[in-house]
Amino acid sequence: MLTIEKAGIKGTSGVKKLREQKLRGGQAFMINVKDLPTYQFYLEYPDGSMHLMDAKKDAKDLTFIRTLTPQEASSIRLRFKFSPIK
Question: Taking the model in full, what pTM does it have?
Fold first, then answer.
């Protein structure tokens, strides 16, 4: 296996571990997705809900766009192979 591939696997594993730690600790976890517009991202919360957010370059605060449906949130978790947090 190439070194870059090994690093990618370790990085993915690290992100999944960090996500679990954040959510279990009661904090939200930011999910960046390449196909979202610039400065938009998802925030996943410990209760399983997920919001689409915006952090414009010049903004001082995050802007709430909308809450994802449970099906949309589940689809995001499946896409990134994130396990549900219980």
Answer: 0.82
**8 A C-beta contact, residue 17 and residue 35:** no
At 38-81, the pLDDT tens digits run: 999 999 999 999 999 999 878 788 999 999 999 999 999 999 99
Closest listed residue to residue 48, CA positions, set 73, 24, 75, 66: 73
Q: Please name the residue that has the structure tokens 């099906």.
A: 71
Asked if residue 69 lies in contact with residue 77, where contact means CB atoms within 8 angstroms, the answer is no
Q: Three-class SS of residue 30?
A: strand
Whole-number Cα distances in Å, 6 to 12, 20, 40, 52, 55: 10, 21, 29, 31, 32
Secondary structure element (H or E) that encloses residue 40, with its range: strand 40-44
Distances in whole angstroms, Cα of residue 42 to Cα of each of 4, 7, 53: 27, 25, 6
